[in-house]
Amino acid sequence: MPRPEVCAYVALGANLGDAVSAVRAALDALARMDGLRLLRASSLYRSAPHDAQGPDFINAVAEVATTLNAPALLQALQLIERAAGRERPYRNAPRTLDLDLLFYGDARIDSPTLTVPHPRWRERAFVLVPLAEIAPQRVPADVLASVADQRIERLIRPA
Which are the catalytic amino acids? Predict the structure, then answer.
């Protein structure tokens, strides 16, 4: 019996190299991935680094339906990151691509390799603003208001 689909949300970001192309390529990779359907993608946004260094980030959020379990989805996201040249020299280093699993259905997971919901999703405008664009029911107004002082601007609407 096939595994039922689960709705998941993935945050995408990059701030090294051609970050716009990197985020677009990651969205394309998600759309082609076995066991996953890309349902919606937010606009692309530019945001200031938050608890990180380097140039501004390009960010987006994708809604996907997947038959992969959460650890397998995380592993697939990390493969996309590595294909884009992602290195992890130190915590919050500038990056060619960063893919974070924000939500996996209504699951609550706390393992050494994966925490879902993402532990800092409520603190970051670069997650909340694009997430609110595609899934406003997921973002309480007071939480969105709490990050209003973080610089973020919409660049490109989804295709």
Answer: 86, 95, 98, 100
